[in-house]
Amino acid sequence: MSKKRKRGLPVVQESQVTIQAAPGDIPAPPDVAVGAPADLARPYLAANINAYMAMLSALPQAFDDLSKQFGIDIYDQMLTDSEVAASLDVIVYAAVATPPVVDAALPPDDPDYGMAVLIADFVREMMDSLSISLQDTLRVLVRQALAYGTALGELIFEATGDAWLISDIRVADLRQFSLIVDGFNQVHGIAPTMLHERFPVGAMMPIHDGQVLDNVMPRSKALLLAWQPTGSDPRGKSLLRAAYAPWWAKQQIINEMVTWFARFAQPSIWGTTAEGAQDICITNPDGSQTIERPTDQLLAALMQFRNASAIALPYGSQVNTINVSESGAVFFAGLDWADNAIRRSILKQHLATGEGQHQARAAAEVHQDILGLMILTVRNWLGDQVRRDVFRPIVLANFGDDAERFTPLLDLGDGDGFPISATEVASLAAVGWFTDDQMAVMDKRLGLPVRGV
User: Fold this and answer.
1) Distances from the Cα of 166 to the Cαs of 95, 101, 189, 191, 265, in angstroms?
2) Of 17, 18, 186, 435, which is most buried by a Cβ count within 10 Å?
3) Cα separation of 273 and 315, whole Å?
4) Per DSSP, what are the bridge partners of residue 205?
5) CA 69, CA 413: separation in Å to the nearest integer?
6) Dist CA 190 CA 176 (whole Å)
7) H/E run at residue 268
8) CB 211, CB 226: distance < 8 Å
């Protein structure tokens, strides 16, 4: 195999194709040389037929098998479960546990570090002046992206003097927009779903050179978060998908448990009539007569007693109870299994945030490390998306294309997101780790009065 590459020309890869000999004594044909011309600057693996035509399409909100079968409301229903919501919120609040910090993109020993600090300060002041804090906005976006696969925040730009600023990041509901894509699933805009007659979901829309897409928000005006997108699909995957099976099983367990407790939580009663009890003849208002047996009278009295607190029976009648020895432990065991399965599917572990009956402390520490990796992954993903969609366009708009390398970084903190303990603070303070300013911060975190510096 040989490769020929020339500057400015398409890449051509030549290879020899060996053709196997036919059965019998027929000689094999000679090898055939084939070439595959390619342009490195263009994609070839199309997502749909639109790649071969001047077409765009609006992606539907349904992004996986569950949302296609039940609609995205299925994830709303799952979030009403206490274990599903708690497991998801652990990641969200741990990933954005502290106010985000805007850092310079270059290290201090870089000759252009001063410029990087100047741009980072500019972006930091802009983020501090948002109508809703960046921390609160990111929490909402991360929760939506992890639950539904995709989250979108519309960037509201504002021109002040000779600078462009972002004054607000407005979180959009997943049902409010559709992504406008081409045949390679490249996003060219975001259309409101209320304009379904103009941009019908799933339909192909012909376009022509120079066409202007009315009422379509450009991609550069959005902070688009997609959690673990598959292939070229710009929509992400829901972190809750793996929890569906145990969540569904938990709903069935709850239904059966409610039925069981309604029947057996209170003892059932049964009775016997007095010895020698006689039938009673009752004359009805129309003159007809009805024979009522003693057992029927006792049954009516016992049924009435279930809704009352007193009962009167003929002398000699006996009333007994039927007590169920089971306490419903099988249901509680099923609920524990479902909660652990939900926790593992979302948090990738279950001991760091749950109870372990027969597990050693070392096992819980391993699970804590696994949870820390999950939180760190979400932080890195979120920081990269904010830097790409929020910081980069502002830097280019105000400082030019040459300033792209100075695009600041978003620091969401280190560790597992859980607050530091008093024991850990005491250990660090004993070796003189903290400065005076840091000690004041630690006092606040521990809920203690801030000491004078």
Assistant:
1) 23, 17, 19, 21, 60
2) 186
3) 9
4) 56
5) 39
6) 10
7) strand 268-272
8) no
Residues of the chain with pLDDT under 50: 1-6, 9, 358
**If you ran DSSP here, which 8-state letter would residue 228 be given?**
S
106-126 pLDDT per residue, tens: 988 899 999 999 999 999 999
Residues in the chain: 453
8 A C-beta contact, residue 112 and residue 106: yes
Q: Tokens 């609609």, residue?
A: 71
In the prediction, which pLDDT does 2 show? 42
Pairing mode of beta strands 150-160, 163-172:
antiparallel
**Strand duo 150-160 + 222-226: pairing:** antiparallel
pTM for the model stands at 0.76
Chain position carrying tokens 């903290």: 434
Residue 383 is predicted with a pLDDT of: 94
Q: Please classify residue 299 by burial: count the beta carbons closer than 10 Å to its beta carbon, then call 0-12 exposed, 13-18 middle and 19+ buried.
A: middle
CA dist 86 and 84 (Å) reads: 6
- At 303 the pLDDT is 79
Q: Which of the 8 DSSP states describes residue 216?
A: -
Give residue 247's Cα distance to chain centre: 15
pLDDT at 25: 62
What b/e sequence results for 89-104 when a residue is b if at least 16 CB atoms lie within 10 Å of its CB, and e otherwise? ebbbebbbbeebebbb
In the numeric block, which tokens belong to residue 282? Answer: 């009752």
